[in-house]
Specification:
Length: 731
């Protein structure tokens, strides 16, 4: 037999390895390990890895092959995330000495708390058998003394114990095992009751109190898990809303309401009016599916390719790494669900390179934060907010993705111009040819974009979002077989495990947001807020919009994008619709400001994540990122004054608004960065700002005025250059 084929195969492999070695970005797709995340070994690694794989497979099978009753499916969806989460994330700090065990009293107390947790779990089995045997309902004293009180005692006690228990990173702590059992007991009761006619009694005086007990325990578990994965901000906001349920009747003015009892509130909050409502509906279908899709892309190293492709395309331009950050973050934003996560994945590479070519630390971090936040408004995936918008408004997801095209393009154009003008003003260079990947090598692997293309094509061919996402996930595995990072059985299992782990944060955030939404809907505070906006609109619609903007940003500060939009959509959007704004326009208005809360001082999660990498002051970074992303705070007002920007109108209207808005954001960037085809003076910056606002406003006369300013200043700059009298940059 000839050995030529083997030699040919060996040569081909060597060429692929050489291509991989010459790439600049490596490790962008690596899983981020949080500081409070456990790192298991041995049988515990196998156990929790298997649970994560099973959790991902459960969703794929249920969504595509074996449908499950809706409420039961959502209960399992949340319970699975809680069980995985309490196994993987600690409630306190890890001990410095990994060999030092917890004090004996902590072990004893945790062991004692396990008894009521197991007893409550046993009671769910006994209640299920009783109902299967024909019982119409469970005796109230059994629900209280044999299920509810033991469950709440075990849940609250284990949460407190987990804060002080000596945690070891390689092992699961006993209080967290108790919380896993409590999550199972709470979900078990719901699965028993919600599959009987007793479901119809929720929110009434006929509802069994067991629902309220299970809901109280479930809410405590969700709040504690949210604290572990996102910090205190969302938990504090949730507690404020929960306190409003009982304190609201004593508040004056439009905040007051008649009041709800604890039993009635909690018997209804763990239904589709609250925790099992729109936010969990989206997380249990679209979001979990696209997290699995993103995990498959990560396993096939598509993220590395995206960043390297951006380096090859924009690295040699002036201020090259900053422009790479924009392109890479936009591409990663299509598969990454959080602004801060996007910063960590791409910023670890781009921020040091930006500093290398001359950007100050605060600017390098701010550019990455602004670009990464823009990934949340970039079609086709747009983080998770777009799916929630589709669920709440009933507008097809495809229409929402199309409507987002022009605003997203304007935002990234604005950030690009900000970066380019700053680089021109400071005389920055791009990267040398030998510092970036070779485009001719990268173009060989352009097929790695195929899963994204297949996703978009399937959506526009009329496939459901679930079917399109499943096809895109399968194509990610198939495409990897053509690349150096082929996905075999082990890599697919690794992707499923990664998806199960990645999904925990977004699922508990959606459940926590559902708790807030439940308070808003059950107390009616959203409707009263709408009437307040309506009163403001009687004075000035612009004032009402400005007030809505402030509330959306305030609600989003310190919260993940998904939760920020879900809450703002419940409080602010109905009020905007009430003053005559179209639902799509109102929700996009709220959505943009919820996203941009990630770069809005004083609490800007994306900017804080970037400052951790750049080494700059967090507040300075957030202020600079606010300046760089300024267009995103102006463009939403166009949604009201020029709905054509959201593809609402004739072709000519859409084209005119797109062109004039494009010129407007360029002039806005020029005004901020003091560079408009050359350095500009202070009075010219004011003119540019006025012209930009005129162009962005969208009226015929304002467009003409803005265009006149832009052309006039351009001619002035040209004449100054020809005369050799270039003005100095304004301070």
């Amino acid at each position: 037999m000839s050995t030529t084929p083997d030699n040919h195969s060996s040569a081909k492999t060597t060429a692929e390895e050489q291509d991989a070695q010459e790439l600049l970005a490596d490790g962008v797709d690596e899983e981020v390990i949080e500081s409070n995340r456990r790192l298991f070994a041995g049988w515990q690694w196998t156990l929790f890895g298997g649970l994560a794989v099973a959790y991902s497979l459960f969703h794929l099978i249920t969504l595509n092959v074996l449908p499950m009753e809706t409420w039961s499916y959502r209960v399992v969806h949340i319970a699975g995330a809680l069980i995985l989460g309490y196994g993987l994330y600690t409630g306190g700090r890890f001990a410095a000495d990994t060999h030092q065990a917890a004090p004996r009293w902590q072990t004893w107390v945790s062991g004692l708390l396990m008894l009521p947790a197991l007893y409550a779990l046993l009671q769910t089995v006994l209640m299920w058998r009783a109902i299967e045997g024909g019982a119409q309902r469970i005796e109230p004293h059994i629900e209280a003394w044999h299920y509810g009180y033991p469950l709440i005692l075990a849940t609250a006690g284990a949460i407190v114990m987990s804060w002080c228990y000596r945690q070891v990173r390689e092992k699961c702590a006993l209080p967290d095992v108790v919380l896993m059992v409590c999550a199972l007991a709470s979900a078990g009761y719901f699965l028993v009751i919600y599959n009987t006619p007793l479901r119809m009694s929720t929110g009434t005086s006929f509802a069994p109190m067991g629902i309220s007990y299970a809901a109280i325990a479930g809410s405590l578990l969700i709040l504690e898990m949210t604290r572990r994965v996102t910090g205190n901000a969302l938990v504090i906001i949730s507690l404020v809303f929960l306190l409003y349920v009982w304190g609201g009747p004593y508040l004056p003015g439009f905040l007051g309401y008649p009041g709800l009892s604890i039993g009635r509130f909690f018997s209804q909050v763990y239904t589709d009016a609250g925790i099992l409502g729109p936010t969990t509906a989206v997380s249990s279908t679209y979001i979990i599916l696209f997290i699995i899709f993103a995990a498959f892309l990560q396993a096939s190293k598509v993220g590395d390719y995206f960043v390297n492709f951006a380096f090859a395309a924009a690295g040699r331009a002036r201020g090259g790494p900053a422009k790479v950050s924009i392109f890479a973050s936009g591409l990663m934003g299509m598969i990454n669900g959080t602004s801060a996560g996007n910063v960590v994945s791409t910023g670890s590479l781009t921020i040091p390179l930006m500093k290398k070519v001359g950007y100050p630390s605060r600017s390098a971090g701010a550019i990455e934060a602004a670009a990464s936040s823009g990934g949340q408004i970039m079609p086709p995936i747009m983080g998770a907010g777009a799916f929630i918008m589709a669920e709440i408004t009933g507008i097809p997801y495809r229409e929402i993705a199309v409507a987002a095209l022009i605003p997203a393009a304007l935002y990234f154009l604005s950030v690009y111009c900000m970066v380019d003008f700053e680089a021109a003003r400071k005389g920055m260079r791009g990267m040398r040819k030998d510092e970036i990947p070779q485009f001719r090598r990268l173009i060989k692997h352009v097929y790695l974009f195929a899963p994204i293309v297949i996703l978009i094509a399937a959506l526009f061919m009329g496939y459901s979002v679930i079917r399109a996402g499943t096809l895109a996930t399968a194509s990610a595995a198939m495409v990897s077989w053509l690349s150096p990072n082929k996905m075999g059985v082990r890599a697919i299992l690794k992707a499923l495990q990664l998806a199960g782990t990645m999904s925990i944060q977004i699922i508990v955030v959606c459940a926590c947001a559902g708790l807030i939404v439940g308070v808003i809907s059950l107390t009616g505070v959203g409707a009263r807020f709408s009437s307040l906006l309506l009163g403001l609109a009687g004075v000035s619609q612009l004032l009402a919009l400005f007030f809505a903007m402030c509330i959306s940003i305030l609600l989003g500060m310190g919260m993940p994008t998904t939760a920020a939009y879900a809450v703002a959509a419940s409080v602010v959007a109905p009020g905007l619709i009430g003053i005559g704004i179209q639902p799509l326009v109102a929700h996009f208005f709220v959505f943009y400001f919820a996203v941009m809360s990630a770069i809005t001082p004083p609490v800007a999660l994306a900017a804080y994540a970037a400052s951790g990498i750049s080494g700059a002051n967090a507040m300075e970074t957030s202020t600079t990122s606010f300046k760089i992303g300024l267009a995103a705070f102006i463009v939403p007002f166009m949604f009201f004054y020029s709905p054509a920007i959201l593809m609402e109108g004739s072709g000519m209207q859409i084209l005119r608004v797109a062109v004039t808005a494009t010129i407007g954001v360029v002039m806005l960037a020029a005004a901020v960065q003091a560079w408009y085809f050359g350095a500009v003076k202070a009075w010219q910056r004011l003119l540019l700002l006025a012209g930009a606002i005129c162009m962005i406003y969208g009226g015929i006369y304002t467009d003409i005025a803005g265009l006149a300013v832009g052309v006039g200043l351009l001619l002035m700059q040209r004449s100054l250059k020809r005369g050799g009298d270039s003005p100095q940059t304004a301070s």
